[in-house]
## 1
Amino acid sequence: MKKIITALVFSAATLSQLSAQPSQPLSLKDCRRLALENNEQVMTANNAVEKAKLDRQIAFAQYLPKVDGSFTMIQLQNQDLLDIGDVLGLQLQTRGTYLAGINVTLPLYVGGQLTAANRLAAIGQKVSEEQRRKTEMQLIADVDNAYYQLIAVRAKVQMLEAYAQQMQGLYDQVKLAAGVQMATENDLLRITTKQNEVSYQLQKARNGEQLCGLALANIIGTDFEQPIIPTDTAFTQVTTSLPHREGSGEGLLLSEDFSSRPDLLLLQQQVKANEVLVKKERSNYLPTLALIGSYSYHDNLKLKGELNLPSGRSLDYNHTIRGGSPYAMLALKLPIFHWGAELKKVKKAKLSLSDSQLQLQQLERSMRVEVRRAVQNVTDAQRMVETAALGRQQADENLRVMRQKYDNQLCTMTDLLDAQSQWQQARSNLIEAQAQLKIYETEYLRVTGRLQVQ
């Protein structure tokens, strides 16, 4: 019990400190921008796109000739090459001998492997871009959810503050009436009880507002110490940006097209990649042909010897070998027999292609259900907003009538308090319905792939 009390006191102290900090007014557009700038997953997705671009450049470089250089220094002991008694001795001196060369290799035909590698690299870049778009859309959906929840809680706080003012005005009115014996102490007690209930709800809503602000700050990556004040607080427009058509007698119906959804495009690219992999494995049956050109230069290779003449004189022999030699050749490689390994690789690639096609069919069915559910949620939310707006109008009118009747002693305190409770509930229902509609709209745009990132 002590731990619970300590935690509550700590939470209350933290929330009070947060409320004392300077606030930062932010629009929904600002929150989206900050989230895209500060989110680690988006940064990782951006890095993945850049790496995919580099992979594509690396794959294209395989078409170009490769130039390599080499340099070799030799340090060996002298080698006796020829020894004819006391007449002639010849040695090969390799200390300090070096060889330098340059090689140029140009692939002429490699069975379509270079084309397949470039196509796979292009598909990989598209996959990384769609993966980034998917990450950004999910992040924006999370931002919208947290933002509209914060707006809804703030609206409830304002509504409860207005409700508390109404109760205080009613209390003052009944207190004056009780002073002239036109109301009873029981009426005052009932109003006080209601005021305590409203005060509890208000404090709870304020705590919820601060917690929602912390949740939003966590998503967009801003300072927790600065409470967020949402500036987009109007719920007047209902799905004006959504593509729709009118149905006969069924109200507003939304499009169920999800062809631009990143999840679908990702799996479609996977199918294309597997098709390329099948062709790539088949290319292992084909010959490869490359043109190789080289030039090498050697120096400081010495032949040294001594020749003894019949006259008794000796003649020294010393010769340094140096020079360069260019050459060019065609290298052809033809696979003949690998115990069926290449055929099995092709079969395996075809099975992977079949798996990706089946996954695509399954994903399309599940997406169709998900999109239809999102459309139904938006449609139902629109109707809920209309119903809640009508209920609010009726509650406002009912409260006005009941207040007049109470002032004229035509209804009881119970009737008036019930009317005020209905007024509170009607406004709360409208706030929740409007916020939920906005959240459903964002979710609909996400599942159909139409949620604009920028």
Note: The chain has eight helices and ten strands.
## 2
Amino acid sequence: MRRQRLSQLAIRIVATAFLATVTVVPATPQQAPRKPPEHGAPPPFFNALTYEETLRYSDGGTEVEHHRNPADELAEHRRIDRVLAALAPQRKGVVDAYVVSVALDSDGNFSREAREAGQVLARRYDAAGRTITLAGPDGKGGIDLPRGSPAHLALVLARIAEIMDKREDVLVLYSTSHGARIGVVYNDGDNGFGIISPVRLAAMLDGLGIKRRLVIVSACYSGSFVPALSDDDSAVLTASVGDRTSFGCQADSDWTFFGDALINHALRKPQSLDAASNEAARLVSEWEARGDLTPSLPQSFIGDGAKRWLAALDRRAPKTESAPVGTPAVTLLDRR
């Protein structure tokens, strides 16, 4: 079920705290698909903190990376440099959307969800050439993308802030991972650990001057991002309220419940974001009822200013529905 297999970092934090799609070079046919790193060793540093220390370091953007192979890190740098350089400039007089889709946990289901979400959002919001997906290997192949991490996300946001027209353009950010009560968990195998808290994400976006933003967070407890990011020019959608889990995070799945409902179904249709959010909430509720699960209660906030730029984007959106892909998240219930 969604979030049963939280990363060890999230487990410890919850217990103690209650505590793109851009053009990149694909793998050659001779290369086997890169496998996602597996979670194993306990996370360093975070498990020794008090709740107050955890909040302070999370709000400050603390990230732990260790035992990285230098040659692999050089390859990572080249991947992120390549996607940053490929971002297209904004078009004067056009409300351009810059899409970022990031998987912050190395389990393959999050990478698969982020990859497809990047494509769906790029199509819907006319963002070809202005989309970056951060998602490590999912074990099934596909293009070779930079891994999702707080550091990579910060670089991408900073580059978008450089080239967008902040008075007319829009950031569309989709994040999928495990969650804790203090934020979204970053966990890359045994090598990378951290948290992106609501305070941290708001500080990054505000500091970069990115005011027009649609932020979608698919994770347990993600409702905590709504009050931190909500204002007149923002839209925020989350998989749950701030004190409940969401579902569907098995590593061999293609979708979480919320990702499947919102991205794979509702946002593929020619309807408003508000209508899509309502459809996604209804689907998630039906699936949870079928599994006798505690309702996650997905959240949605759309400011009045955001409604205006969303309408401008929707006028250019495809008029036909695209077909869902992957194994439906609800089939997880059949394995119980």
Note: The two ends are 9 Å apart (CA to CA).
## 3
Amino acid sequence: MAEKDELKGIQKAAILLIALGPEKSSLIFKHLKEDEIEDLTLEIANTKSVTPSVKERVINEFYEVCLAQQYIAEGGIGYAKELLEKALGADKALDVIGKLTASLQVKPFEFVKKTDASQLLNFIQDEHPQTIALILSYLSAGQAASILGALVPEKQADVARRIATMDRTSPDVIKEVERVLESKLSSLVNQDYTVIGGVDAVVEILNTVDRGTEKHIMETLEVEEPELADEIRKKMFVFEDILLLDDRAIQRVLRDVDNNDLAIACKGSKEEVQNVIFSNMSKRLAEMIKEDIEFMGPVRMKDVEEAQQKIVNIIRKLEDSGEIVISRGGGDEVIV
């Protein structure tokens, strides 16, 4: 086993999980992405032996980074550095802080998250759309949705588009935006290049804003950026989100769904989703669909996704016509 300084991040993570044992490691796995779990599992499998000294050093490093993160959360970088210097010495403190900001990436605009959305709106509503998009990309979906919904209509779609197409932002740009807000709100430490925004970010925000704001933004993007609008729409409501509908809405949706499409869609869905669907149809029809699923044999994932998308399209069409309501933020009006 390589010494500590030669270990890569994933090697340290594997050693830490081995040291923690299967029960604690399984709890950590629940919070990881599938590709991260696969990479870690492979690394653990390839880790034949770990010397006690290496294991101890990795655990100590993990503890020090966690301690630094806690101090930063309590009082910022300066406060953390001061406490760590007292506990570990100046050189060690700088080393730990460096690892934390490089690997865990202390995010910019943390101070903005503690600011009331209406107050923040007053500070940024007259800024350039790109600046607003940058700030909203770092906020929670709920907070960003409140601000996006309060912007003037002609600026909403522009900001949403900029969030969706944002990739990497220079630390100099982040620092400049923070400098402008610093005198009004707070200050924050600069950091390395950070991946922010993207389609997933704007989807999460649009799923939280009121329906009127979402509709206006999507209609504008369909004219100006049709491919982007199509990509966003596909991610905004997925088949499993049928759990967000009430029984009455599900029953209305099922009236327009082809039984063959429903069987294929359910074939690749979670048991929880299947149960909700079957509970909202007649017992006879439910048994028939279950039999179709059982005897249809293997189904290509592409066919499952196409069938599920057909049902999603029906759901969105019924929502647009006001026949059903999808549970979302923003105080939707329920049409009875």
Note: The beta strands are 168-169, 194-195.
## 4
Amino acid sequence: MHDATRTLTSAMPERFALPQLRLGVVGGRGTPPTTFDRRLLYVGSAPDNDVVVEDLSVSRTHLKIEGERGGFRIKDLGSKNGTWMAGCRLVEGLLTGPTTLRLGQVDLLVEPLAETHEVALSRESRFGDLLGESAVMREIFAHLAKVAPTDVTVLIDGESGTGKELVAEALHRHSRRANGPFVIFDCSAVQPNLVESELFGHLRGAFTGAVASRVGAMAEADGGTLFLDEIGELDLELQPKLLRALERHEIRPVGSNDRRRVDVRIVAATNRDLLQMVKEGSFREDLYWRLNVVRVGLPPLRRRPEDIPLLVRHFLDDAARREGQTRPMSIGFDTMRRLQSHPWPGNIRELRNAIERAAVLSSGRELEVDVAADQPASVAPADGLAVRFDLPFKDAKARLIDTFERTYWERALEAHGWNVSAAARATGLHRKSLEYVVRKLGLERPGTDA
């Protein structure tokens, strides 16, 4: 094949038609049979699954269904009570027609439909600084490659440490604005009373302490891309001003009567459920829809373990270059298998830290990583609320808040015999709100884990 033809072919994504899938719980509590046009779906009792099964016999993440050429691959994810089909326990199999699966004590309808949708998978294992050989990441790469050259607003969501900033940088680098500025504004790192000034700028004397005029982040990003990180942390009172700036493409610095036109592409990111925040009234619905023009959802590392070998090799190569070594350390099969089975709550950031730390501490040329014993530096005050000092501030803060919420609600529910209504009354929360918290945190009464 000619080099130019080979280059063109590798740049073109792999495309195929995939049937829509009708999937859902039959005659039980949970997601009813619903039509999906996504390639990858997760089923389980935890609220973050695509299909939620509200039954104690179903594991938190019970199975995944992944579309490929020729059908849908169903894989049990180590569930306690198993996935069954026609009386046989299913570990992994390719589904080509309709069937009913048995998950614990619940029936799940799985029905490919006649209607199809196109799936595009990149042939590359990276996009910008994002790495991944898994189908889910190559699907994201193909999506990003299509979106990047446009000026469309993008909303990135995913857990902390999944690479949201890398997505924003890659979108900018592959856009017509690549020669313009790329400005990061972290909504969680600025005091609420200073956000407006930092975002839109201010004039000298506009408020106490404003000894000089300041250009805000939106003006700095003029002609380029503004990355609004942790957009879910933006104060509710400031959201209308941001919406106005996005709609009119103009800003008014604090203390000024004049407005300035800006040409800025917006990429926003969050690790929170903005739609739920809209329902709760803590995030404006009109701003949500203004930001959610194109959504990019990044999977947690535990849901893409096949990418861990590539990421580990990349981190080892980086470590070798920094240390001036001619070749990186090797890693054994058993060690790699342990890394792939570890849940990595801190996602790629946690994996990178673990590999870099192990590269320094290993005695030979083979990497020695004991993920079970690899505990981060922390201070553990009463009730086990440990502060993580090996993480960036916003990640350590998010982890601490999550631990606090989980500990608080577990104790509140335990004190009231896991009666949600009684616990809600005692803590001053609406029952429906506490039901959402229980689902969000995946809280279960001890002894009911499936």
Note: The radius of gyration is 24 Å.
